[in-house]
Amino acid sequence: MRKMKSEFPENFLWGGATAANQIEGGSDVGGKGLSVADVYTFDENMPKERWTEQWLMMTHKQVEEAMDPSSKKYYPKRHGVDFYHHYKEDIALFAEMGFKVYRMSLAWTRIFPKGDELEPNEEGLAFYDRVFDELIKHGIEPLVSLSHYEMPLHLATEYGGWVNRKVVDFYVRFATTVFNRYKDKVKYWITFNEINCVKHHPFTSLGVIEENHPHIEQAKYQGAHHQFVASALATKTWKRINPDVKVGCMISYQLLVPYSCNPDDIQKTVEKQRESLFFSDVQARGYYPAYTARMLEEKNVVLETQPDDEQIMRENPVDFVSFSYYMSSAVSAHPDNLKGAVGNLMTGGVENPYLSKSEWGWQIDPKGLRTALNQLYDRYQKPLFVAENGLGAVDIVKEDGTIEDDYRIDYLKEHIKQIKESIKDGVDVFGYTSWGCIDMISASTSQMSKRYGYIYVDQDDMGRGTKRRIKKKSFDWYKNVIASNGEQLD
Ligand code: BG6
Asked: β-strands 455-457, 101-105: how paired?
């Protein structure tokens, strides 16, 4: 029998995570094309309740407006925080914190600006060569998400997004191109960020505009099927080129707990959790789980598949399971008389009275991370990677120029403690990349003021500011966490 482990493994991968569409900017340089992320606007006069509207449902009108070069609206993800021009300075700061790993994504549209070209854009490929070389120079391992909410807009408008099988071929061409190019620089790959979010925001995840689909559930699951096949094909290609490469799936893990011990709440929780874990079930095991048939039938979904799909998926499951963890959510079968958990957008859960919440209403539950790690490990017995975790908060720069983000330190500390508990439980977790190691544009609200970083960026919601990078109090705290391999958290 294995002895209990009480410490983080020696080679634990500590680091931070970002996504190209939220950090890079430079949408008009290097031949980059527009991605679905470049369509989201921010307007400082917009009421708070409407911030996430476009994230959850994009309309034709908004897409057309965004494609019109004379549009006067502000599109924050086109500007990011200009990592495109600041990457050396930013990576040097990551190195100063002692990062072992940096999770980043590739902007598909830098490499294939429209997505359906036969040949890649050399300038885009060269940019990532420079980024990887800089990371390697500092001894930081890149962990790369191939697709993080940034598919080419052209594939959405001209092909209808992932519902169209042709997109599988475009993705595989992209995957093969970058793998051939970076095979000696990148060992860890994630095929799709938060693949289970196709259910919640189909435009950003699938390039699907809901107005086009009277039966939206059909479109979502068909798109997901194509992503499963595409992920398996990419894995197959990569392993052929380099059998040592490690490929992971990535889901958004919102721990679901029954609101009460009422058997109806318990059954509802099981169903909701299956809907979410369905995606990692398929990618970690390589086949559709037994509950799929009933789940799809009840949604009136009939998948169109090709004869080889099952075999491709079965032969190419992922090596590791990664996930984001920000919050948990309570589930009730009879939510009408209960308060909805407003920030926990995705499950529409109810508020858990035992938990506090962030300024954006996300319910904070560090112990839930231990539960999540145990649940996933029990379920898959595959190495786990915490690919995102963090607190979105408003930070204030004091007159003396310092930023005292103790609230962020508290949040991260409590979560890291629970990872350690899970290691004692026997869970095989090999890395942790907190979200937004440097401030950048929020995915869901497109705000700048929802900050996650250890590094502050002087820029406001409308893109005004010097873009100067300032270390927050959490910068030195995290540096110490890494230096002590998770032993010194206070
Ligand atoms: C995850 C995404 O869902 O959550 C990230 O993978 C995102 O892209 C992060 O930024 C935090 O969400 P938000 O909306 O606060 O930026």
From this structure: unpaired
- Active-site residue, from 53, 194, 271, 297: 194
Q: Whose CA is closest to 435, among 182, 108, 105?
A: 105
Please report, as a single letter, which amino acid is at residue 379: R
| CA pair distance 107, 130, nearest whole angstrom | 14
Contact partners, residue 235, CB within 8 Å, separation at least 6: 191, 247, 316, 317, 318
**CB contact set of 409 (below 8 Å; sequence gap of 6+):** 473, 474, 477
Per-residue pLDDT tens digits for 34-55: 999 999 999 988 887 778 888 8
Query: Is 414 among the catalytic positions?
Result: no
Number of H helices, E strands in the chain: 16, 14
Pairwise CA distance, residues 309 & 230, whole Å: 10
What letter would DSSP give residue 350?
B
- Determine the residue of 22, 190, 435 to mutate for testing ligand 1's pocket, defined as the one with the most ligand atoms within 8 A of the Cβ atom: 435
194 counts as catalytic? yes
Q: Is the CB of 206 under 6 A from ligand 1?
A: no
Number of residues that this document lists for the chain = 490
- Ligand 1 pocket test: pick from 250, 324, 433 the residue with the most ligand atoms within 8 Å of its Cβ: 324
3 state DSSP class of 213: coil
pTM: 0.97
Nearest CA among 71, 77, 230 for reference residue 153 = 77
pLDDT tens-digit profile of 6-31?
Answer: 899 999 999 999 999 999 999 999 99
